[in-house]
């Protein structure tokens, strides 16, 4: 299962978010059920970031979303938002990688 989350930050908080992600990425990646984690930044909108992660399934993602790690991270970054976060959980239908 793939999870994409779009986060929009005020310009003044972008560097702090990138630094926080660098600090926490290993902890998030090592969370049970997380198989992959990436951070992407929009080229044309400097405050827009996307996290791209793969999870073993909805239960693993839900466990992470109800963890202290997620709660503490969200409490830190929530005041930095300049737009409403959006999230999508996706199931792969097809792949060109064989």
Brief summary of the model shown:
The chain has helices spanning 14-29, 58-65, 68-77; strands at residues 2-8, 34-41, 48-55, 86-90.
Molecular structure report:
The protein is of the alpha+beta class and 98 residues long. It has helices spanning 14-29, 58-65, 68-77, and strands at 2-8, 34-41, 48-55, 86-90. Strands 2-3-1-4 form a four-stranded antiparallel β-sheet.
The main sheet comes to: 4 strands, antiparallel
How does the overall form come out from the CA principal axes?
A: globular
The topology string of helices and strands comes to: EHEEHHE
Given helix and strand content, the structural type is: alpha+beta
Percent helix, as a range, is 25-40%
Topology of helices and strands:
Layout: E1 2-8, H1 14-29, E2 34-41, E3 48-55, H2 58-65, H3 68-77, E4 86-90
Antiparallel strand pairs: 1-3, 1-4, 2-3
Which keywords apply here?
4 strands, globular, alpha+beta, four-stranded antiparallel sheet, 98 residues, 35% helix
């Amino acid at each position: 299962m793939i999870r994409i989350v779009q986060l929009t930050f005020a310009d003044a908080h972008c560097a702090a978010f990138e630094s926080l992600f660098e600090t926490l990425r290993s902890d998030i990646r090592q969370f049970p059920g997380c198989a992959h984690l990436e951070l992407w930044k929009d080229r044309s909108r400097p405050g827009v970031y996307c996290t791209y992660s793969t999870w073993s399934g909805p239960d693993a993602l839900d466990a992470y979303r109800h963890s202290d790690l997620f709660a503490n991270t969200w409490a830190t970054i929530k005041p930095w938002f300049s737009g409403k976060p959006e999230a999508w959980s996706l199931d792969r239908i097809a792949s060109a990688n064989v």
